[in-house]
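Hey,
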Amino acid sequence: MNLILLLLISAVILIIAYRFYGAYVYKRFGLSDKNPAPSHTHRDGVDYEPSKPIVVLGHHFASIAGAGPIVGPIIAVTFGWIPAVIWILVGGIFFGAVHDLGSMAASLRADGKSIGVIIRQQIGTRGKQLFVLFSFSTLILVIGVFADIIAKTFVSNPGVASASILFIVLAIGFGLVNRLVGSKKTAFILISVIGVILMYFFVYLGMQLPFALDYKIWILALLAYAFLASVTPVSLLLQPRDYLNSFLLYGMMIAAILGVFIANPEIKMSNEITVSTENLGYIFPVLFVTIACGAISGFHSLVASGTTSKQLDKESDAKVVGFGGMLIESFLAIISVGAVVVLTKAEYLERLAGEGPVALFSTGLGGMIATLGISEEFATGFVALTVSAFALTTLDTCTRLARFTLQEYFEDMPQPAAKTISQNRYVSTGLVVLFSILLLLSGGFTTLWPIFGSANQLLAALALLTIAVWMIRKKKNALFVTLPMFFMFTVTLASLGLFAWKNFQDQIYVLSIIAALLFVLAIALMILATKSIKKEIKEPAKAL
């Protein structure tokens, strides 16, 4: 079997799934353009801003992608490329896309609020407090880890830093011009073409003008940028940067596909399935925790209900942004698998241990892109730059999401300090950055990061639980949500149990205790959800 066939089969499956299952899920959630979107009813020019669907898709896709659909699938190939591909396709269609669109739909019905607020409405205040504390802690961890990764990348490759700075300047210019253009379609297409051309030129220019700074200075600069990105109107920086950056990833994917068709590489990796590995553990539940963003990721629910739902111009846009955005990411995950299946299993394992997943992806995809007549060195650098650009996108999006989460936690409290945090975006963002700096200074993120995979999938299970309760309380058939929910809870609880036991045996008691606490959190929210459903199961049906 060659790689072209794998990509074609995967693409056809995903397109058919979008056309038919996407339409079914959209209908089941009761979305309709008859309902005004929160971007219009709560428009404030900062967070709530109606935008063109292609722009929102760019923001959403850039925010949820990051390095997740690259790192996870490549590591998971350790168990075999066939189970990895199957989970990406099945998980992306029936789990991730439902999860993302459901989070978006529930948020649209809750004035664009996040999953935490929806939990309060559907499960209760105690459930909201538990979930918000958990999601806020997870976001701070992601901010700390990605700031560290990006700073180290900038130190080792100053050309990437230069290109990233140029991208930010370009995004601000694009945002300002786009505001002047308004709803003029022809003008928007023209500035988009110019913006994309300049962005690719800045890739080259950045490599020629490397900008070097110390690691600690980069950390402070990155967090200062994240602060500004969080408080600045979404249409001025965050949205245009993500929109333009998405064309980096689209370009990389298109170049990779063309390269595959020219090179026509054979799949050298065997069809062997490994049930257990020394480093990762058993295929169940590890495979389903390792491949997150390419199939289903709890982080997506925070983006879908945190920033994306506030920018949708109309409810019908949710299908292409939520369902479609997830399937595009699934295809990226398939491409990631394709970057390594052209190696033998022995070569793959040796290079994975020596180079790491990102470098392995960059060299593998860079080699394929080089068949288009581009130097392999530049192609590999371009792939690495694309991954870094999306890591920076994750950083600024997470900061804004953490700010939303913090504000929503305190919004029901009457104390003056709580009101200040909930109503002042500068104060709340400042606290987010402060917590991130403290985590970085402590070095605690390096200890806590191994549990992130399980925590992220727990977030997905809890989001599905919230969507299911929302559907059931509206007297709607929620089977297409509850089946993925039960599976994800099974995966998460099994993963947390094994993780807690392994770290207890290794005498890493901090991680063992955290895993046990997350296990208890999941059970507690399930109990609260069950009580909520039983309490109102006999009430008259409420309109979606």
